[in-house]
Amino acid sequence: MHSLPIVHVGSVSLDGEEPVFILGPCVIESEAFIWSVAERLGALASSLRLRWVFKASYDKANRSAGSSFRGIGVRAGCQLLQRVGEQLKVPVTTDVHTEEEIHVAAEHIDLLQIPAFLSRQTDLILAAGRTGRAVNVKKGQFMAPWDVRNIAEKLQSVKCQDFFFTERGTTFGYQNLVADMRSLYWMRELGYRVVFDATHSVQRPGGLGTATGGDGNLAPVLARAAVAAGCDGVFMETHPDPTKALSDGPNQIPLSQLAEIVSQLRKLHEIVKES
Prior knowledge:
This protein has 275 residues and is an alpha/beta fold. Helix content is 35%, strand content 20%. Helix 4 (122-130) crosses helix 5 (148-157) and helix 7 (219-229) runs parallel beside helix 8.
């Protein structure tokens, strides 16, 4: 394996010593909602001494139906996330969808996330790389693990070194994904830091007709498998009551279960690191 670089995301580093957790709800449902979830996650992270990044989307641009809730918009959302990050002293991340949004987000956000469906959009990736912010590219459901080398070369061409990839499942027939744990190994073999997205990997895209379905109960199972296979962090969306979530409810992990899940994953990581 190539020597893996240390990736800096604000005050947090992906260096293999401790897993980094990217945690938060799917979308900013309201300002009060975000503060409530963030404060609970902050308390959890403090008690467990986690390396973590707070995540929430200001806009869900790829909803199944046009009538679905999307969010509060790029500027308001990014400003809110910045305030959360400053209050909790934690880096923040959100997904970006256009070059224009990147320019706004880069003023406030520590980690710019390129959505899986946009992972081959060259201009978007170059724009993100030029900001000087860390970049997380979700590997497209249609891409082979070794295809990420092309994305890395695009980022490196604009002097971006703080980037990593996120595995979030591969299309497996209609409205289904499969998580191939070999992908984690192969991407790290190429010399890149890799995070596993436990909650989006259990999606059933469009499975509810006008919304995405999923098997949220399997997210902790896949997260354990990913940590055992070897990864640098785990991405998990969480909600106080996933049945009432305005986006991706079937995939999100109940906030009340998160501490136990995270504790298990850290123990597994320690075993893998020692071996």
